[in-house]
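Worked example (supplementary).
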Amino acid sequence: MKSPDQRRRSDRAHSAILTAAAAAVAELGYARTTIEGIAARAGVGKQTIYRWWPSKGAVVLDALIAEQPDVEWPDTGDLTADLRLVLRATIAAFADEDTSATLRALMIDMQHDPALSESVLTRMLRPQLAATRRRLVAAQEAGQVAAGLDLDVAVEVIFGPIYHRWILRTHPFDEAYADELTAVVVRALAPPAP
Amino acid sequence: MKSPDQRRRSDRAHSAILTAAAAAVAELGYARTTIEGIAARAGVGKQTIYRWWPSKGAVVLDALIAEQPDVEWPDTGDLTADLRLVLRATIAAFADEDTSATLRALMIDMQHDPALSESVLTRMLRPQLAATRRRLVAAQEAGQVAAGLDLDVAVEVIFGPIYHRWILRTHPFDEAYADELTAVVVRALAPPAP
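After joint prediction of all chains, the assembly is encoded as:
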């Protein structure tokens, strides 16, 4: 068993590594970030990193998750207002060149690394989708979403268009886009007019 | 200049290579398909393939495009009926394990091969998106799509949810899904109730 002192040192090292990974990616980009570079910034040995993470992708993923704001949706009771807020924030994140480049690099690594792929799904994407679904359940109970609508489809209608635009790189990621998409999604989910 | 005979032989070889590429991928899967194997099936030398295509990805892409039904949308005047038809066909293609595996393999190769990536966009995806947009322009003129709606966003609302489901591999690709998505999309695009 670890002593309290050992545990404190271990927590400090863990958190220094995450901070170093985020700083390295922000400064150098994902491709030029290395485990050695992260270790040097964090003031630990490479082996300390490999004790907790199997790959560069895994430690960068944890750093991204640590930086990520709460995945929980606002619930002001007004679905349109909440959607607009979340879509503006999501679209602003994709519009940020550094974030976008890191996510693209992570997506490429996922193709060759099933463990990383599973962890991006389990630790980053599924929690976001589940949080969205919870907000939609509340909206459905409040009569702002059609009663019979399959909420898995609803979640995909919210985020699918953004992925599509990001992958094809054809159109701007700006606030006007977020607001247009909000309006379209609200109509898609709305109950039939009485 | 080529003589008519040379041109005929050349056309025949070109088309034999595409047929061989499609057969090889269907039988062996994309990963186990090789340029050598395609050449042997087509009864040509490897160099004949490399005269027209720079890579395995490029020849397989052309074989996929040759097999692909017309990208033009039906226009019966009834947007809901046309959407249902196209979404059922699109979702059936993604549901087919061989097609889906080939597309995933192509997506992985695209990450390392900018020329292939550009050709998938230019020759496969953009024509589909442009055809969808043309159908939506007609629907907008017929008053079945909201007058002010940005049709690029509309196209993404149609196909984005399908990509999202395909990439995350979480849900079924069946006819019930196609029909639910059709209903959601029709509501998303509809003009405001009078």
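Two points are worth noting when inspecting this output. Residues 72 and 131 of chain B are 5 Å apart (CA to CA). The domain at 4-56 of chain B is CATH 1.10.10.60 (Arc Repressor Mutant, subunit A).
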